[in-house]
Design a protein that fits this description.
Blueprint: H1 3-23, H2 27-68, E1 83-87, E2 91-96, E3 102-111, E4 118-121, E5 127-133, E6 140-141, E7 148-150, E8 156-163, E9 166-174, E10 180-188, E11 200-210, H3 216-221, E12 224-229, E13 234-236, E14 243-247, E15 251-257, E16 261-280, E17 288-299, E18 308-316, H4 319-325, H5 346-364, H6 370-384, H7 386-401, H8 403-412, H9 419-432, H10 442-460, E19 482-488, E20 492-495, H11 497-518, H12 523-547, H13 552-574, H14 578-591, H15 601-619
Antiparallel strand pairs: 1-2, 2-3, 3-4, 5-6, 5-11, 7-8, 8-9, 9-10, 10-18, 11-17, 12-13, 12-15, 14-16, 15-16, 16-17, 16-18, 19-20
Amino acid sequence: MDKNTVTGFLLIILVIIGFSWYSRPSQEELQQMAKQDSIAALEKRKAELENQEKEKQIEAEKIEQASDSSSLFFAQRNGKGQDVVLQNNKVKVTLSTQGGTIQSAQITGYKSRQIEGDVMILNPDDAHMTFMLEGKQDNIIFDDFTFIPENQTDSTVIMTLSQEGKKLEIGYTLHPESYMIDISIKAEGLSGFFSPNMKRLGISWTDHILQQEKGYDFENRYSSLTYKKTDKGTDKLKETTNDTEELDQPLDWIAFKNQFFSAVLIAPQNFTNCHLASTQESEKKTGYLKTYEAQMETPFDPTGSQATALQFYIGPNHYHTLQAHDNLSMTDKNLDLEELVFLGWPLFRWINRWFIMPLFDWLKGFGLTMGVVLLLLTLIVKILVYHPTKKSFLSSAKMRVLKPQIDALSVKYPKQEDAMKKQQETMQIYSQYGVSPMGGCLPMLIQTPIWIALFNFVPNAIELRGQSFLWADDLSAYDDVINWGKDLWLIGDHLSIFCLLFCVTNIINTWISMRQQQNQMTGEQAQQMKMMQYMMYIMPVVFFFMFNNYSSGLCYYYFLSGLTSILIMWYLRKTTDDNKLLAKLEAYKQQHKNDPKKASGMAARLEALQKMQEEQRRKK
């Protein structure tokens, strides 16, 4: 190697060393590169772990599939469900192939206050139902399986599970022009899967009840888990508190009931071993009322010779509609579904069933608005009780014109020990003039049952739902034109104008009634009546706080009833001449002065008490 070659190599080495020194990264760049290397290493490790996890999951699925391949209907276990819709012009029902049960239902023609469109009950986010069968080694929980829909039409479908000659199917049939769905559950070739004594199908049903109406308190008060005992009447869990029931007697049906809509599961072969629970929502304004739970059993034939029959009513709580659906029962027993519309205790239910409802339906048949129907209903009721009301007023008027003679007795018998004798002569005067002190009670005895009957009828009348009148946008809920948006103690967040009018007319009627009674009383009785008067005036105030959350239709009826009572009292007072009335009483006394009359009733009892007192005085 000559001198020039050595020099060339040295120069090349110096250039490489110099370029390397010049292009080396700074300290900051070295730190950044180290950081990137660390991230890359972590990502690589993460990818390796994910691959390992996937491999483990695949292996586990292979093991599970190998083990499940020996279980019943393994091929349809834990699949992906799809919706199946049945509908007619009354209701649209959605079923899911996952579990083979009803998921939701929309009731056609009733607008929801919570969502756009029709009322929805059994919402899939809130409601859940499943069937269960107990096997020798494994249980069939329908939720674990994806059923295959077969023979599907707009109103029928059969959901099936099948494997090597073994089959389990659920059939659904939606009746035309109705809210009733027939359900049949049948097994084929499964008798060896069950123990010989297994003859029950378990049912678990829960629902977080959606608030459907405007007023939480009012709707909650009329929403309840209701059930019917076989060969007996209906019963229900408490509406406003948590409640549970363990029932050993058989049931015909169980209803998850809102104020105006119900989902009713019916067992033609009866439910047994029933556990029922109703749990209140912890807070208001959540959009929900309460949670219903029901666990029960119904007969099941493992041999498949007979299907388990069930029925589902999903529709409005309309008395005549429910009554008509009794005819769709799979058995000859009366379902009494109309009992979901509570019309009061026996006397008041009888008045509603045979008087108020036919009259209401007749007026409604003219196509009138509900406000006018309630007005006419009020007027007709007042016309029917006008004659006893007039008799009551005249009885009070007679006692009023005789008051000077009664006052004279207070002067004649000023001592307390003569009170019995004074009372006896008072009754004698009334008897001479043909006056009955109890005559004023008759209209109250007639009107009070009607008043209470309507208290039960109006809040349950679905015909009022969504019907507006004057300032009320819904006669089935409170009117809240005056609303301050914040709950206040006792009164809530609004002022019901119809409730206020009802309470005002109540105060006026109380004042009229007190005046009539004061005009009939003297001395100590008049003083006692003044004390009673203050208590009577408290009642309208109590009614205001009670009824401010009640339906405006009910308050409107009570307002009309009170107003017509005021007008009737005004008319009777205006057309009654006290002088002419007194003259008639005097004429009656003269006409009957020679008639031998035997004391009866209160007068007889007073006479007997007076004789007893006189006898005791003589002995002393």
